[in-house]
Amino acid sequence: MKFVDSAKISVKAGDGGRGCVSFRREKFVPKGGPDGGDGGRGGHVYLRANRQLSTLLDFKYRKSYIAGRGEHGMGARKSGKNGNDVVIGVPCGTVVRNAETGEVLCDMVEDGQEIMIAKGGRGGQGNQHFATATRQAPRFAQPGEKGEEVELEMELKLMADVGLVGFPNAGKSTLISVFSAARPKIADYPFTTLVPNLGIVRYDDYKSFVMADIPGIIEGAAEGRGLGIQFLRHIQRTKTLLVMVPSDSADIAAEYATLLRELEKFDPSLLSKPRLAVITKMDIAPEEFETPELEPDAKVFTISGVAGQGLKPLKDELWRQISAQNLSEAADASN
Ligand SMILES: Nc1nc2c(ncn2[C@@H]2O[C@H](COP(=O)(O)OP(=O)(O)OP(=O)(O)O)[C@@H](O)[C@H]2O)c(=O)[nH]1
Ligand SMILES: [Mg+2]
């Protein structure tokens, strides 16, 4: 079971540019004074919390971040340009440590929170700064400073974006195993899953979300039948719910209604969350199977985790809902 996501990356700020050694050269001015410009500052590396991100998965693919070097100074008192900064987005809730010392460097909590994690080197001064009464032609300039470099260890307590709800054997664990790298136990007896599992679902480059697989609930769960419903608290803070009924259910609509009723008994606000109705195990559905209407005016998704059917449209819709909520939360936060 994996509730904590972690990643290790190295960051390096840009080195400062060198100061320039140069002397004015103009017609009729035979011995011009020093006019070497300053080197530019190296780019800084920043971390910025972003509520649109929910995992550290991207850092499994990219582990090294380097900001731009400052440009060297030039003649005619021209300074070099500063190096480009790098801004690394991290999910809200990421704790960042120095990997060598273990020291906590920052706790990225608020959306938009930004911290400079590696400082770019200062540019060196050009020789124009070093002329004195006794030394009118300095033939030296300052080198640029090195940019800071640090190995970071990041840790994020995962919060599920999507919660899977269904009777035992509905195929919840199977779905999370095809959507993510999570490998929960799957078996043809009820209550195979005894503790919640989280899986990270990659949607696209730089897009991923977290899915929670919880033990099955049954009618009367609110009164303590089966494993009870204490696990539903794990999905109280999710953005959306998948309510799953297998195609071989004796009465799909009744089973669906029972699930909603148990959710409501546990916490009525669960019913005001967006949800998707999903019929699973479509590979064993009879040919004449007709998809029942489970939600007024809403599409019912028909899938098979085993046969890999219908998964793409479901994933697309999940992402659509999650990102719509990320946006509306961001709007709320800025009001
Ligand atoms: N034919 C078929 N079988 C499936 C499909 N998905 C799951 N199953 C089977 O249904 C059984 C239950 O699957 P699980 O994924 O363990 O179901 P669950 O909802 O996690 O069950 P609990 O953990 O007990 O609540 C297993 O035997 C699976 O192989 C499917 O798409 N097609
Ligand atoms: Mg399971």
Automatic annotation (TrEMBL):
CDD domains: Obg. PROSITE patterns: G_OBG, GTP1_OBG, OBG. It is an enzyme of class 3 (hydrolase). Its main location: cytoplasm. It comes from the Bacteria. It holds the Pfam family MMR_HSR1. GTP binds at residues 166-173, 191-195, 213-216, 280-283, 304-306. Mg(2+) binds at residues 173, 193. An essential GTPase which binds GTP, GDP and possibly (p)ppGpp with moderate affinity, with high nucleotide exchange rates and a fairly low GTP hydrolysis rate. Plays a role in control of the cell cycle, stress response, ribosome biogenesis and in those bacteria that undergo differentiation, in morphogenesis control. Belongs to the TRAFAC class OBG-HflX-like GTPase superfamily. OBG GTPase family. Monomer. This is GTPase Obg. It comes from Chlorobaculum parvum.
